[in-house]
Amino acid sequence: MATYSLLQVSLAQTIDRQSLEDASVVIPSVAKADCAKLQRELFGILVSGLEADEARLFQIELHHRNFPTELVADHDLPRLHEPFTFQRLEVSGDVLNFTDSMGHTRMRKMSDLVFLAGGFLVELEMRVEKSLKLKTSGKGSYPGYVLHRKTEMKTVPKFILDFFFSNEPHRLQAKIIPENVVFHQGIPLRLKYPEQIVAAMAQLRLLLPRDRLNSGLLRNDAAAAYPNFESYEEEIRWKFYRLMNAE
Known about the structure:
Layout (H helix, E strand, L loop, with lengths): L3 E5 L8 H8 L7 H9 L4 E6 L1 H13 L4 E5 L10 E2 L2 E5 L2 E5 L5 E5 L3 E23 L8 E22 L5 E6 L5 E3 L2 E3 L4 H11 L10 H4 L10 H16 L3
Parallel strand pairs: 4-10, 5-11
Antiparallel strand pairs: 1-2, 1-3, 5-6, 6-7, 8-9, 9-10, 11-12
Helix pairs in contact: 1-2
């Protein structure tokens, strides 16, 4: 059975949580408890996986609350390719050179670049904290150190950068986390120096027209643009759908 999504008409649209909860009453697939998450992660695609009748009812209720949406079959929404990762980027004329952590370089033509996305975000991840603790085995024994490991969920800041091409490999991605560094034009980009990343963003968005950039890359600050990686990718899919269906 075909399922459907409701898409924002514009990324500038907003809806308060109460209105979203009130609209969701007409369909069983969206509970009130889901609405906080839907509102927080609203980056183009409000909800997916609805049956046709539910999608239409929800759309009508949202329209009554000044939140117009577009009903789209899930199979018509673009899927994103799995990324190949890179650690260094050099832009020279109409050529992009991507180098991975093993030192292998891919040379891509600027004319094949169709979309560019980037942005700061945060994600919850399982992290292992290691520490050395002093331990003695008994009276008169020599002290020693024991390695302790503690696993817990932590909020991890990140910066993601994606290049999308019209030919294979379709997607090249760099990910900056607290433990690593990515180089742009020979300059190291680290999360602890966000001004360097913001400066690189300003240069990168000159590579394509604004309609082929995501909103995270268009920002001029290092504030978290997305609450998680799923929201970041959701906006890219929304933008791809708009580009595919532009008149």
